[in-house]
Design goal:
The complex is a heterodimer. Chain A has helices at residues 6-37, 39-59, 66-85, 87-95, 98-104, 107-136, 144-169, 178-202, 207-236. Chain A is mainly α. The radius of gyration of chain A is 20 Å and the shape is globular. The model of chain A is unreliable at 1-7 (pLDDT under 50). Chain B is mostly helical. Chain B has one domain (47-245). Chain B is built from seven helices and no strands. In chain B, helix 3 (93-122) packs antiparallel against helix 7. Chain B is globular, with a radius of gyration of 22 Å. The chains are: A mainly alpha, B mainly alpha.
């Protein structure tokens, strides 16, 4: 490699690393705080457990179709994630750490760190919730990996949408149920595709029919996250 | 003559001249819209609306009102997204005012279009079934659009600082556009539509005769004109409120 190219490459490399380190620091901070208090984790677990139990109790011994099963489980997951992820930025405001983050990191780092944390948290919880749902409703699924893939892609789109909205509601007064109002209309395309795919998997519909939905889900997550990256600075800066 | 009052007189004259000139043009356009829409409504009820489809019959006249209302709603929504971009670019609160009014008009025409659509579908598509709501893709899209507009106003009412409110709500409008585009793409693949031109239904120009199109296209223009008229009035009202109250309410 010619010598004169060296500074340039090392510089871009270190810039990337600088950015990545910042994002990772935000992510690590959130994980540590979560492990210390376990607030979001416990609350979400309890929320999902009690909602699932409510569903089981109110259904009784009624046998419901796969479409209703898919719709029920995704509505529960949607509510759970909106309740759990709403705290992400509100807690920064409550603890008075917003200014610190604004001074030490760039907006995109904060967004990336928070997004990564939300994806990990939500995916863990969604796996637990879906597992509990399948168990309680006595549903056996043959293509578990397909279900896991749809669940993961759905989680990606879900956290991509809610992370920016969570940053928005952190700027408002009494921001309790506001996130649900803001997020649900935007999540309708995601919900429709994800419920259709889950229904197909429960019916053993075959990979070809799920493939298209998976592409749609990837595209949804991709465009929502890129739009968030573009818009995040307007929400984050004073 | 006192210099001060002379200056004020000149300034006032200059302002009122340019203002009255502008108002005159706007006024003439508005009279034009009123005449135009009157002609469209008359034509909608007087001209023959013969369609070859049995159940549709005379209800086909709803085409002149229902469909332009949808177009106006979508137009107002995308115009509001354009204004939202301007809010983020310039941080000027005048643009924020315009986003609000455009969203309000999108909501108004959305509700009107939904009402005319629900009544129409009840007595054509769902004749004899007693159904009022069938999850038709276009119906769903309009409903989602109304939900987004509603959420937009809820978000605004939760923010106190005018600059922050302008910025955050503009971000929400733009973010919702991404989702709407996906809805446009996803819906036709997952649900079937009874609307013409989609899902194997005959296209719009196959089932309407030329007389209907003679009224339909002017009706679209007329509804756009009415929407612009309303928008202009609302924005001017908001400006007057800002001048008299010292701040802009919502």
């Amino acid at each position: 490699m010619p010598k004169k190219n060296m500074p340039h490459t090392t510089q871009t490399h270190s810039k990337l690393r600088y950015w990545f380190n910042g994002a990772y620091a935000v992510f690590e901070k959130d994980v540590r705080l979560e492990l210390r208090s376990r607030y979001a984790l416990n609350m979400l677990l309890m929320f999902i457990a009690s909602t699932l139990f409510l569903v089981v109790v109110s259904l009784g011994n009624e046998v419901i179709g796969t479409r209703v099963q898919a719709a029920l489980v995704w509505v529960i997951l949607l509510f759970g994630s909106v309740i759990g992820l709403g705290r992400g930025f509100v807690s920064e405001v409550d603890q008075g750490t917003v200014l610190l983050l604004q001074l030490h990191t760039r907006g995109s780092m904060v967004y990336a760190g928070k997004l990564a944390f939300n994806i990990v948290l939500l995916f863990l919880l969604n796996v637990l919730a879906l597992g509990a749902f399948l168990l309680l409703m006595n549903i056996s699924v043959e293509n578990l990996w397909q279900l896991a893939l749809v669940l993961f892609l759905g989680t990606l789109g879900l956290s991509g949408t809610t992370t920016l909205l969570a940053a928005m509601i952190a700027r408002t007064r009494n921001s309790g149920p506001l996130l649900a109002v803001l997020a649900f209309p935007l999540l309708i395309p995601l919900l429709m595709s994800v419920v259709a795919a889950t229904n197909t998997i429960l019916l053993n519909g075959g990979w070809e029919r799920i493939q298209e939905t998976c592409v749609t889900l990837v595209a949804f997550a991709g465009s929502v996250i890129s739009a968030s990256v573009l818009l995040f600075d307007y929400v984050w800066r004073e | 003559m006192c210099g001060g009052s002379d200056l004020a007189y000149n300034l006032g004259y200059g302002l009122s001249f340019s203002q009255s000139n502008m108002t005159l043009v706007v006024k003439r356009i508005k009279i034009g819209i009123a005449v135009w829409m009157t002609a469209v409504i008359l034509a909608a009820f007087v001209l023959s609306a013969a369609t070859k489809l049995p159940i549709l019959e005379q209800t086909a006249r709803n085409l002149y009102f229902h469909v332009p209302m949808w177009f106006t709603m979508m137009m107002a929504y995308f115009v509001s997204a354009y204004f939202a971009v301007q809010v983020l670019r310039t941080e000027d609160l005048v643009w924020d005012m315009k986003v609000v009014e455009a969203t309000r008009i999108a909501m108004l025409f959305g509700v009107l279009g939904m009402l005319t659509g629900i009544v129409w579908s009840r007595f054509t598509w769902f004749l004899g079934t007693g159904k009022w709501w069938g999850s038709d893709p276009k119906q769903m899209m309009a409903a989602v659009q109304l939900l987004i507009s509603g959420a937009y106003f809820v978000l605004r009412s939760a923010l106190d600082n005018p600059r922050l409110r302008a910025r955050i709500s503009a971000v929400y409008t733009l973010f919702s556009v991404v989702s709407m585009i996906f809805l446009l793409y996803v819906l036709p693949r997952l649900t079937e539509s009874l609307h013409p031109g989609t899902g194997g239904n005959p296209a719009f120009d196959k089932i309407t005769d030329p007389t209907m199109r003679l009224v339909f296209y002017p009706a679209i223009l007329g509804f756009f004109g009415i929407a612009w008229w309303l928008f202009d009035q609302r924005v001017r009202l908001a400006r007057v409120e800002e001048d008299t109250e010292g701040f802009y309410i919502q």
